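User: For my dataset I need records formatted as: sequence, then structure tokens, nothing else. Please produce one.
Assistant:
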Amino acid sequence: MFELSAPRGLFVTLRIDGRLRGCIGHLIPRQPLYAEVQQVALAAAMRDPRFPPMTPGEIRCATIEVSVLTPPRAVLSPNDVVVGQHGVIISRGARRAVMLPQVPLEHGWDRETFLSQTCRKAGLPADAWRQGAEIEVFEADVIAEGRLQQPAPP
């Protein structure tokens, strides 16, 4: 397990009825884990640019997943990426995207699709991972998954 006072990178993923509703995180730790979880959970609910801020009703129905990350490391070859074990960071120039290790499993992606989708998320051509984009990997331990609050009575 982890020491809660140690700094660790992490992501918080929020879902409603199994659909993504917010996901925010930091690869590089900024503060102790216990404080980071609190701030990142709030950011996932209120500041994910892909979604409007969550309403109180949505928060009551949301599930939370906290992924604690290992430090990123470069890989020598795309073949070193292990689907389901590694999260991926792909970057070229100012463009960069991150995908957690659980994402390809949720979508049934193989390695090539995982890398291509991460490139697209970064705004790069889907084959940028074959064309010299930097690939880094990390691992994630999911330490919490469950409802933020119980649903309100009808």
